[in-house]
Design a protein that fits this description.
2 copies of one chain form a homodimer.
Chain A: H1 2-23, H2 28-44, H3 46-62, H4 67-73, H5 77-92, E1 100-107, E2 110-118, E3 121-126, H6 131-142, E4 146-150, H7 156-173, E5 181-184, H8 187-193, E6 202-206, H9 209-217, E7 231-235, H10 241-253, E8 262-268, H11 272-285, E9 289-292, E10 303-304, E11 318-324, H12 327-337, E12 342-346, H13 350-359, E13 364-369, E14 386-388, E15 396-398, E16 404-415, E17 431-433
Parallel strand pairs in A: 3-4, 3-6, 4-5, 7-8, 7-12, 8-11, 9-10, 9-11, 12-13
Antiparallel strand pairs in A: 1-2, 1-17, 2-16, 14-15
Helix pairs in contact in A: 1-8, 2-5, 2-7, 3-7, 5-6, 10-11
Chain lengths: ~425, ~425
């Protein structure tokens, strides 16, 4: 039974790989046509998809799924329209593949090009949110990658309806899309898939930290994912107090459930007496639970913060606050306890800001603005694969550019290496072409 | 005892991490000064280093190390001079960090920059060749990374002498280089280091396929490495026969011990009778052992090739040969049996060439030239970290650009996200700045 499952999964991955080779040279026109077909098919099947989702919702309610998860699971007509709009804007985006990134003449008639190209086969494992299925499949198609999808079991019927719509549309445009999008349905299958590092080139988990961690631990395939979002705002001694209050309020309160919301506020000791009472008043209005270190509690009456608070992602109206003696202490705290996601400084001093932006080792470092700006849409990247806290390949909000890599093409005219060695060796010119 | 070892290794990695933060904003001038100091120190300590290497060589001979490994282990005055020259050329290279890769106005006064920056802490595990220690440490210093080194135990004394020279030189330039270069000496320590995915950002193994594979299997840290080099040359029916012979000879014979040498020759059936006898004659002169499939053996008298030959990296004067019926068959063979390293086509037909270059899924794809050109120095990248067969981060010959990543910097003036949502929401401009 197990070996049969393995065979099935290997067959899926093999078809995916073959399809990925066909995609390598598929013209942009055809990829965009496939995207347009998906948008129109989603419109046509709206009722069917919504009713599949209603079934999932009813089943989930029966099994007692938490309210916040039910909300994520919901995929109604309004959300389908959003998905369609997002596909339409994806069609308008530049082709991410086939870009000449670099071109060098190695010698007369020997020209090297570095060209962007698809990665190959991408496995996407996501929880709840059915819109992720549409968003990520379409990003993969635009960038010429084949994709193997696995959603949460609570969304089974919705995912099936969406995957069917996508597969039917693209295959109707060209049979070369056979195998480009495939859906797996069981955990057992994903376990098998994660073993196939000879066929799958990249795994992107979209969901909880636990999901990302467990996948990292169970595969040799590169994983593009995020760890937690423990984001900081540091109020420097030379901060504009009004700006500091305004920005820190937004960073915590504008939408606390997301990874780019601030979790810890760091305050320079010399501005604490001016800043903290004003800030605390504003947070108190919004019912933010504040937890401060000892020095903080000299200025405002809040609960004490424990060591554990510095490395906790609340995703809620809770905030830890620490008074620091210097810029260096703030930076050390962020690099030590943070998750290298997004961290901001509020200061009027450009040199202080520069040092903070240089040394804080996070994918996004901000000066005088809210951490909540850290997001693919706000950055103008178009749709987003996710926010990566990796230190290699792609970091921060990742759009299409995280789904491509490059290859080198060398055009010669019978050139051989023997001519460039020994006596009378020819010399390389290494002339940069634009 | 074991937990003590773990503590030591964690301390090393921790120091490395702290040093990496100091390097994030170290000016190019100082990094180049450190490189110059290393070059001059290597010159001064030449006798000492050579004598350490002679001890290693003597010990290795006693333990019966294979001749080819002894040759790799040798690091004499001549090789030291080569290392020095390579450092001098590295000093001249552009700064790989601090480059503005992209710049966007999100809204008036809210400017986003994507800036190249160091990765952080890089662990390098290499076998034999002591010059790799110098080359990779200096590449890491140039790109602002801290590096933890582990060489083969047969080169212990040489590695120690080289690491001492490097560390003494850079620390003499600035104490901020404390911990930038560190040397581990036991396998046990490496095992521990590979567990520290919270401190080490990237592992680069330089050595045999077995080394690379065993490291991939034992760590969650991203690995930048190569698999084998099973490189192909495909002789299309529209090839210039003389060019095909000349290039295929170079690809196999110019230096067969390296990963970019050709291992399998694919020949279109309609050119086989013209090409194969001529080619075989030339290979026979060079004592190349040819192994052909059944169709090949209709044209030339050679040993039969087995299924295993198609996926074997000989690194020797041995070659497998297969006759194919079409371009598609050639491409399928390469994508199936190859190692996605370097593959070439010989043809006069530009459309045939284009299809080959598009669909062959290798980091380097060549038209009418020898696979032996696949190399960082020949590509004009300067010194090389290695050749990567990864599908993410860095692919093909990897120079300094494989040691950097990017961060996003956002400069605001009190901007908050609340202003961009709800009624009267401000709109993003997303204007590309150059």
């Amino acid at each position: 039974m197990l070996s049969l499952a393995m065979e099935t999964v290997r067959k899926v991955a093999q078809e995916s790989k073959e399809s990925s080779y066909r995609l390598q040279c598929m013209p942009l026109e055809k990829r965009n046509k496939a995207l347009a077909a998906i948008a129109s098919e989603l419109k046509k099947r709206k009722t069917k998809i919504v009713s599949a989702n209603e079934n999932d919702l009813a089943n989930a309610e029966k099994t007692g799924l938490a309210k916040v998860l039910l909300k994520r699971l919901k995929y109604d007509a309004h959300k389908i329209d959003e998905s369609i709009r997002s596909i339409e804007s994806l069609i308008k985006q530049d082709d991410p593949i086939g870009k000449i990134l670099d071109s060098t003449e190695l010698d007369k008639g020997l020209i090297l090009e570095k060209v962007s190209c698809p990665i190959g086969v991408i496995a996407i494992i996501f929880e709840s949110r059915p819109e992720a299925l549409v968003q990520i499949s379409t990003l993969c198609i635009k960038s010429g990658n084949a994709v193997i999808l696995k959603g949460g079991s609570e969304a089974d019927q919705t995912n099936k309806a969406l995957a069917d719509a996508i597969i039917d549309s693209i295959v109707s445009i060209d049979r070369d899309f056979d195998g480009t999008v495939q859906l797996l349905s069981t955990r057992e299958q994903i376990k098998k898939l994660l073993e196939l590092d000879d066929l799958v080139d990249l795994v992107i988990p979209r969901g909880s930290n636990e999901l990302v961690r467990s996948i990292r631990e169970s595969t040799k395939i590169p994983v593009l994912g995020h760890s937690e979002g423990i984001c900081h705002t540091y109020i420097d001694e030379e901060a504009d107090v009004n700006m500091a209050v305004r920005v820190s309020f937004d960073a915590k309160c504008q939408y606390p459930a997301v990874c780019n919301a601030m979790e810890t506020l760091l305050v320079h000791k010399d501005i604490a007496s001016k800043f903290l009472p004003k800030m605390a008043k504003k947070y108190a209005y919004a019912n933010v639970e504040m937890r401060g270190d000892e020095k903080t509690r000299r200025h405002i009456k809040v609960k004490p913060a424990s060591e554990k608070d510095w490395s906790t992602e609340y995703n809620d109206f809770i905030l830890s606050i620490k008074v620091v003696s210097s810029l260096d202490e703030a930076i050390d705290h962020i690099n030590r306890y943070g998750s290298h996601h997004t961290d901001a400084i509020i200061t009027e001093n450009v040199l202080t800001a520069r040092k903070f932006l240089d040394i804080v080792d996070s994918s996004s470092v901000f000066w005088n603005c809210s951490t909540r700006f850290s997001d693919g849409y706000k950055y103008g990247l178009g749709a987003e694969v996710g926010i990566s806290t990796n230190k290699t390949h792609a970091r921060g909000p990742v759009g299409l550019e995280g789904l491509v890599i490059y290859k080198y093409r060398l055009y010669g005219n019978g050139h051989i290496v023997a001519d460039y060695s020994g006596k009378d060796a020819k010399k390389f010119t290494h002339r940069k072409l634009t």
